[in-house]
Amino acid sequence: MKPPQTLFLLLTLFLFYLLSGQKGVLVSAAHHHHHTQRHLFDWRPTKLFVFGDSYSDTGNNGKSVASSWKQPYGITFPGKPSGRFSDGRVLTDFLARFIGVKSPIPYRFRKVGAKHLKYGVNFAYGGTGVFNTLVLDPNMTTQIDFFQKLIKNDYVFTPKDLHSSVALVTVAGNDYGTYVATNGSVQGWQPFITSVVNQVTVNLKRIYALGVSKIVVTALQPLGCLPSSTAAFSFQQCNGTENALVSFHNLLLQQAVAKLNNETKNSFIILDLYASFTSVFKNKGDLGSIKFENPLRPCCIGISSEYSCGSMDESGSKKYTICKNPESAFFWDTAHPTQQGWRAVYSALQATLEELY
User: Fold this and answer.
1) 125 within 8 A of 143, measured Cβ to Cβ
2) Of 28, 54, 56, 276, which residue is the catalytic one?
3) Where does the signal peptide begin and end (predicted)?
4) pLDDT tens across 104-140, in order?
5) Half-sphere exposure (CA, 13 Å, Cβ side) for 156?
6) Which of 53, 57, 161, 333 is catalytic?
7) CATH class entry, domain 7-290+339-356
8) Is position 336 annotated as part of the catalytic site?
9) 3-state SS assignment for residue 122
10) What is the pTM of this model?
11) Burial of 164 per CB tally in 10 Å (0-12, 13-18, 19+)
12) Is 31 a catalytic residue?
């Protein structure tokens, strides 16, 4: 996403930034609770329901259109393209492992049999947002419609199933990319960000009302640090203006989730991708065996601006390059972490994830 570079916008958002007391690091809504509480309850999640975009999609996008079904995606796991926007596992897979279930099957494969729905369903589609975006895949409202149909019309999941479940909701910025692509005005940024967070809040309330006990929602990652933005700086520095916009989004989300938790006895948790991404960048992923030399440089990149990871010409020649070792890179392509990148983020989120219990 590349918002207009204007002094007025930067100063306005910086003012919001200062007034809010934010330092680019959010604290999860339940962060101050003692982790020892997890052993006081019998509740243990048995299912995971996923809503969102490419940060959590594990194969819903059509094979004929999505790059996630093309080589070299999936080379680390499962060894071939599987619909994940990475060389391997994505956030959904790591969260599923944490709560002790298998990664739920994509919604598009739901008709393979009820036994395959044992661990929940993934409704996320790469490229979508809370509103309609430039892709034709279902937005988050429609994804929740699918979920509601399975519950109320198809009777696939019982109230007990839902009570022992966790929902993951990812919002990675596609609404903002669409705003830029459709020539949204500079003056319109603040109300548009507000409308996005308001719709996220509506979605969270709806999932909760359908019976899900714990709902995890991602704060927006530092969009100004994605390779699509840092390419202009030779992958050496982030775009501060974009990250100021992100901080405003995250502030509003934090306020909304705090209000929801007051109403529902702490059923909502923020996974702070901003803090976890920036922590990894700062430390170059120095978490034991995980190390990234230049975390802003992607592993897979098009040979020129007109090509992207996975691009081929008419003769079938590759129009992209891949780094020698994906485990040495935080980003896989211009927007998505590698499996090792997600592992580093997951490690940084461990304390927050404990609040699920």
Assistant:
1) yes
2) 54
3) 1-21
4) 999 999 887 777 899 999 999 999 999 999 998 999 9
5) 20
6) 333
7) alpha beta
8) yes
9) strand
10) 0.88
11) middle
12) no
